[in-house]
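Last lecture ended with a question: if I hand you only a sequence, what can you say about the shape of the protein? Today we answer it with a concrete record. The protein is Solute carrier organic anion transporter family member. Below, first the input exactly as provided, then the predicted structure, then a couple of comments.
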Amino acid sequence: AGCEKEPSSYMWVYILLGNMLRGIGETPVTPLGISYLDDFAKEENVPVYVACLHTIAMMGPMFGFLLGSLCAKLYVDIGFVDPGSITITPQDSRWVGAWWLGFLIGGATSFLSAIPFCFLPRSLEKPEGANKDKTSHGLLENTCAVRNKLSPEKTKPRKWSVMLKGKKVLGNRMYFTFLCCSLLQFSGFIGFLTYKPKYMEQQYGQSTSKSNFLIGMTSLPPVGLGIFLGGLIMKKYKMGIIAATKFSFTMSFLAYAISLLHFFVGCENYVVAGMTVSYE
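The predicted structure:
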């Protein structure tokens, strides 16, 4: 009777809904933020501003790993049990850290950091010499002016399917290639970032806290620094689309070539009776 399956917890539903709401709130920042910068900044300064935006975005996961390292040192029921009654340590395989504490701290910080966005102006003064028609605001004004000249019969709302079919976004070879490239890059990076802490725990005998700390301090800061330096290089040499593509291809090729060194890093597998060795 003690081996019968007990009713499972539905707490995962709350985590799922929380991550869904977080994704909805975080998504507009990058596309709309880049568009905001591109509209109201000088063309030669946009790469640096966008690089700063992505660099700050990379610092978030870095602090998240450091926060996870701190929370992993605290027992999961902290605040509800007497710390003196806990007989195990974080090095014990039965130890469960306060994983839920990071959600509370991160959620409160996200809420506070979102408040200043409410005070941003809808439109900024455009720099001298900027082409008004190039900005999304100028395009919107021109579109409205054209619509006012059209007859009411020609301004009927169109269905989303017709609009998407007319734009043929996915039919653009440049956009589709860039989309596939981004999917491959992020899939590899997320997989690497997700399983590397667990790999360090299993292969090198590190605790969860120390693994998260090492990942946060060694893996993410170089990425943020690289993004910032890339923006400075693009500004200094005033790269166009072709030069930026060649630059991106060269750096990506070097990065993948250096990543091959990971195949030579590791320890021998643990001896497990019945799996790696016989029972005898």
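Comments.
1. The radius of gyration is 25 Å.
2. Residues 41-119+160-264 form one domain.
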